[in-house]
Description:
Strand order of the largest sheet: 4-3-5-7-6
Structural class: alpha/beta
CATH class of the domain at 454-542: Alpha Beta
Number of strands: 7
Strand content: 5-15%
Helix content: 55-70%
CATH topology of the domain at 454-542: Translation Initiation Factor IF3
Largest sheet: 5 strands, mixed
CATH architecture of the domain at 454-542: 2-Layer Sandwich
Distance between the termini: 59 Å
Amino acid sequence: xxxxxxxxxxxxxxxxxxxxxxxxxxxxxxxxxxxxxxxxxxxxxxxxxxxxxxxxxxxxxxxxxxxxxxxxxxxxxxxxxxxxxxxxxxxxxxxxxxxxxxxxxxxxxxxxxxxxxxxxxxxxxxxxxxxxxxxxxxxxxxxxxxxxxxxxxxxxxxxxxxxxxxxxxxxxxxxxxxxxxxxxxxxxxxxxxxxxxxxxxxxxxxxxxxxxxxxxxxxxxxxxxxxxxxxxxxxxxxxxxxxxxxxxxxxxxxxxxxxxxxxxxxxxxxxxxxxxxxxxxxxxxxxxxxxxxxxxxxxxxxxxxxxxxxxxxxxxxxxxxxxxxxxxxxxxxxxxxxxxxxxxxxxxxxxxxxxxxxxxxxxxxxxxxxxxxxxxxxxxxxxxxxxxxxxxxxxxxxxxxxxxxxxxxxxxxxxxxxxxxxxxxxxxxxxxxxxxxxxxxxxxxxxxxxxxxxxxxxxxxxxxxxxxxxxxxxxxxxxxxxxxxxxxxxxxxxxxxxxxxxxxxxxxxxxxxxxxxxxxxxxxxxxxxxxxxxxxxxxxxxxxxxxxxxxxx
Length: 553
């Protein structure tokens, strides 16, 4: 796969193209990205580095680490999408290099480069390395902990165990209990399968390690309990135990929900994954393979299985919950590729499976106009006047790349597996560059930029003591881009606007043009300050409301 001395520069260039290029495209999305970014901004403004707040209210959804990472980034790069997303991109690149270094150490330089490339070019990795949320940080520390545990057991260096406990404590600070429960279950399963439980109890410093874990992870949680008491405990339970046992936000799904998520999220390498899993499962102790390789297979098999089953058992299901298994899937697939590149097996079936998946995904995008009618009608409820042709041709070019890349790789694989590997990796690179330069800008312009522009205009007009009301259109991005607290009102609550007009200072109102009839008679006359698409920035004044004249706006 090339000279080893060029591996790290090549991987850095790869990460630059996939994770950092056009990092601000599109603007921050609702709801998670804008919420994390705004909570970080409010932390910077208030100077309170302990308690996260969003829109002036306490926010206990996630622990503190993500805010500590985003705050310096936003200070340096600005309180906008690139600054908010930079930590995820940095940790994505760091995890890619970590995977390379680990596989290079325990297997071979080629396996390291292949595994790191597979991880970096997997669809879910690219998406989460460009998102201002916690998952990339969580998975970095979770993976670092698993690697440190494997090295402690395979090399007999007890000092690696201290790294395990610190890494898991940081994973806990990134996303709460899942940062401990997942790796603990993986490690327990691996120890039982390989018969090393007693060795861990002798060499793993479990009691001292628990103390180190608490020393790193506990202070912030203790501070939250001391400051906020039962309110913090209730919120923490809701976002952990209740989320696991009940459906939150309508994010449910059937028991097989994560099966297609795995194939889509690990694209374009998912065609090889079933064979890699099967080969690892069937690899016996007497196979003649090095014991370290067999243990590595078993670690990754337990890793994939625990994550898949754990989240399949959860009531709340979201696609990115499956991301913690992607590093293990990348290792299994890399070992599969490494064996094939050594001429000891063929990958024909896996390559053609990838081609079928690519043609299906690409064909769906190319055929979008023929079956998007119902979706278009649903979209118009949020964006009246939307037409599919407004998206341009970006999705068609994206469809061509997704279909042609894996198909070309399958054909190339008949002669050269190196060429097939390069074509699969190139599919993700080309698709990512097309996505951020051609496909996403129209989406941003149509769906995100109008509300962003109206919010920014409101923020420029308002003083700190003034009020900003969102009628029927509340989004976290409104708070972030207006740099102002927002009063959310639901449809049917138009009469609640009137009391704000009696208070000192100004009140501005953001709504959609199709909601204006609901505001008639609600207690004031409306002056249109700005219109962007279907979104309006209004200034209500005392008197009977009438629908404003929008001509010329």
